[in-house]
Amino acid sequence: MNRPEISYTRARLDSELHQILEIQKRNIKAGLTKEEKAKEGFITVGHDFDILKKMNDACAHILAKDKDKVAGYALVMLPSFRNDIPVLTPMFDTADTLLKGKNYVVMGQVCIDKPYRKMGVFRGMYAYYQKELNTKFDCLFTEIASSNTRSLRAHNSVGFKSLKTEITDGVSWELVNWDWK
Q: For the segment 85-123, what is each residue's pLDDT rounded down to a tens digit?
C-alpha cells in the first residue's frame, strides 16, 4: 500500500459511524488471538450505533481519514455518558476523584485500522484531539487494560501520565490523564 494522505476531522456522517463500528468488530479483544492482542493491541468495549451517535451528537468523535475511508478513530465521551455504558461507570467515578475541580473529557476508545498502523496516525489523531478540544477541557482522561502494553506505551508517548491502577471485575486498568493546561 502506498503511504496514504491522512486527514484529521470530526465525525459528521452516519456512514463514518458505521465505519467506526466495522473497525471495532475487527479489533475487539474477544475476537483476537493471544498473539494478535500482544502484538497489535486490542479494544475492550464494543458500542452500538445508537450510543455512538448520541456521543457524537454531544461532541463529535475524532477521525483519521484516507479520502472517504475511516483509517482510525478516537471517541469523545463526555462525563454525562457515565451511565450509558455500565462497564465504564467506575472509571468516571475514579476520574471525578482524581481530577476533582478539572473540566475533563474522556477518550472513549482509540483504534487505528490495521493497514494504517505505524504511519503516525495515532499521534496525528491525538494532536488533532488536543487542538480541537483543549479550549473547552483541561485534560483528556481514559483507562487502558494493563495487559494492553502496546496501547499503554503509545499513550505515554503522546503525553498521558498514569494516575492509578484499578481492578474492576477482575480486570486491571491503568487510569491515565493528559493534562492540557
A: 888 888 999 999 999 999 999 998 899 999 999 999 999
Q: Is 11 exposed, middle or buried (0-12, 13-18, 19+ CB in 10 A)?
A: buried
Mode of pairing for the β-strands spanning 104-112 and 161-168: unpaired
In sequence order, the β-bridge partners of residue 9 are 63
Nine cell digits for residue 48? 452500538
Interval 151-176: pLDDT, tens: 899 999 999 999 999 988 888 999 99
Q: What is this structure's pTM?
A: 0.90
Pairing, β 139-145 against β 104-112 = parallel
Write out the E strands in 22-145. 62-66, 69-77, 104-112, 139-145
